[in-house]
């Protein structure tokens, strides 16, 4: 769903291994191209006789051995942040690499190895996940492994485990998962909560007495590279009672199930946008434990990212390339104007119409196109599937889209999706 097929390149290498090479290490060189995000290596061995060969597997990059699995594996994956156990994730430097073989047992007649190397290149694409969750590292009941497994089952790409005033979770993230782990901490005070995302230890001490201390903690997190989110700012029980204009990057407009507190956060955000401010809105489930309503990736935050990495995801959010849906199944919308998309600022010389392509709507859903003037257009979906709106710029500062749906479970019409704005230069 909404995922672009990643551009890939496949190279196949064959190498005869002779009996006299038994008990030696063999390299099969290959060239690592530029801009590779993930490399998959698979090998098979064909005996030239009746005896079964035993050939071990590993790999080196241009500087060092990056992994070794001996005879335990016939394939491995190395990515920027995740890798098969026994192999090191990290930068995939362009240059000469080599598949390593230990010719442990070679038949008298020799054997042949066939190596398939698949390169997956950086491909900008929509990724989905949850930017506000908890674990046993604070007051949650889920282990880190359980959180990761649930997100993987949901088909999500990333999770931030933002435990209250704790960073221990950032040092014990599970590695055997395809889900990107975004370091996080929920800076939790008696008068409001804020997520610090992207660094292992954003602050050294969470205790504060007043606004001056809050400003100092935020400044420290900022200096260390954290992205700062004001969480559930209009919550009934733990609102942000500090200065609403404290230094921050993003606004948690949607926390958990859609309720009046989110409606208030939405109204304030709309006012900021109408005043000319560009403020990125995000969502988070704030899940702590099994609950019939508060669940992982509900809401789900979608990010158009250049790479499936922590920096790639955070940079995508910073650009405003963000859509929030009530669940990982959507609905979902893309806003475009010429070559520009959700979060972008369209130059004044671009006069194309705005196109909103909405996917996975249901019959009866309401699609709203909103500017600083409020709701400018509202249409009811007569059929399920995809829906498209087109509108002239009309000199507006921005447009964004909301989808509202009647949920029979609670017999209410609630937010099902909202996009960040596409802005227009005046």
From TrEMBL:
<dbReference type="InterPro" id="IPR016195">
    <property type="entry name" value="Pol/histidinol_Pase-like"/>
</dbReference>
<dbReference type="InterPro" id="IPR052018">
    <property type="entry name" value="PHP_domain"/>
</dbReference>
<dbReference type="InterPro" id="IPR003141">
    <property type="entry name" value="Pol/His_phosphatase_N"/>
</dbReference>
<protein>
    <recommendedName>
        <fullName>Polymerase/histidinol phosphatase N-terminal domain-containing protein</fullName>
    </recommendedName>
</protein>
<feature type="domain" description="Polymerase/histidinol phosphatase N-terminal">
    <location>
        <begin position="129"/>
        <end position="191"/>
    </location>
</feature>
